[in-house]
Design goal:
Blueprint (H helix, E strand, L loop, with lengths): L18 H51 L2 H8 L2 H4 E4 L12 H7 L2 E6 L19 E9 L16 E9 L3
Antiparallel strand pairs: 1-2, 2-3, 3-4
């Protein structure tokens, strides 16, 4: 049989994508990218807040453990000493050495903490008496995420201050 005399049929070759398919694919991809980019600022803010809370918790835990390790007399002297009440911390919540130079403090300082130990005034409801318990001291710790060594905790302005109250018991 001679195939050269058969009529040639036009064969349509589909080797690519149509314009409609390409436009739809690009549109779907653009929608996904825009959605992901819209979530990035929110995720970054949540990450920053989490790091801030972690550092503040580390600071509070460090101060509480330092105070619990003190004797009752040392705790009383801390309550009356302004220099011992303010502590400086870096961005990881680690205390900055008080002997560090002012330049080192300025570059590392991220948090300021203030320790307040009011006079013994803890009255337990089970005592039945209104006299303060002499074996408990209230400790108030205020932490601000601000790189100012002389931060005013009494008038913080727009700076958020985390305040934690803890009881310290006399164990010795």
């Amino acid at each position: 049989m001679n195939t050269s005399k058969l009529p040639q049929t036009n064969r349509v070759s589909r080797s690519g994508f149509s314009l409609v398919e390409v436009v739809l694919a690009v549109g779907i991809m653009a929608l996904g990218v825009v959605t992901i980019l819209g979530l990035l600022p929110h995720g970054m803010e949540i990450s920053r807040q989490t790091a801030n809370e972690l550092a503040e918790s580390r600071i509070v835990d460090s101060i509480i453990s330092d105070l619990q390790a003190m004797t009752w007399a040392q705790l009383h002297s801390t309550a009356n000493n302004e220099d011992l009440q303010t502590r400086l911390y870096d961005d990881q919540g680690l205390q900055i050495d008080s002997n560090a130079s002012n330049d080192e403090k300025a570059t590392e300082l991220s948090y300021v903490a203030r320790v307040e130990i009011p006079e013994p005034n803890v009255v337990l409801p089970t005592d039945g008496a209104e006299t303060p318990n002499q074996n408990l001291r209230r400790v108030i710790i205020k932490v601000a995420a601000v790189p100012q060594e002389n931060f005013n905790f009494d008038n913080p302005g727009a700076v958020p201050v985390r305040t934690v109250t803890q009881l310290i018991a006399r164990t010795r």
